Amino acid sequence: MPNLADLTSKAKEKLTLSSNEEVVVAEKYEGSDKVIACLAYVYFVSAAVLLLRHDNSEFVRFHAKQAFVLLIIALLVLLIAPGTWKYGLNGALFLVALYGAVRAFQGRRWTVPYFTSIANSIEI
Question: What is the DSSP string of 51-96?
């Protein structure tokens, strides 16, 4: 069985045109990067991932930033939203985080409208 440290590289799916030019169609990430990016969507783990693994992988950093924005918004909803609204909104945010974790585990990027633009503005 291969070592997880050896599997941290990303694989690119390429398309070869008739003129022998290679074009990157989509990026698919593999190995431990997928697992760590997936775990970043667990509340409060995203901050630890940002602090500890931000230099290792752009893919992990992307998902950790996005998960961190989801965490901040979930905390704001808990503090500001009245009564049962906080449970409904946090349930919706949980489903968004769950879908992001699934996409990260598949090795794919998934951009959440508005949240990704906020996440991209975070400098670490």
Answer: HHHTTT-HHHHHHHHHHHHHHHHHHHHHHHS-TTHHHHHHHHHHHH
Tell me if 63 sits within 8 A of 37, measured CB to CB: yes
- The CA distance from 119 to 124, in Å, is 11
Amino acid at 45: V
Q: Which long-range contacts (CB under 8 A, 24 or more apart) does 14-22 make?
A: none
**Rounded to 10 degrees, what is the CA torsion of 36, 41, 43, 49?**
30
Query: Cβ neighbours of residue 103 under 8 Å, at least 6 residues apart?
Result: 109, 110
Residue 122, helix vs strand vs coil:
coil
Render pLDDT for 52-93 as a digit per residue (tens, 0 to 9).
Answer: 766 678 888 888 889 889 999 999 999 998 988 989 999 999
pTM for this structure?
0.70
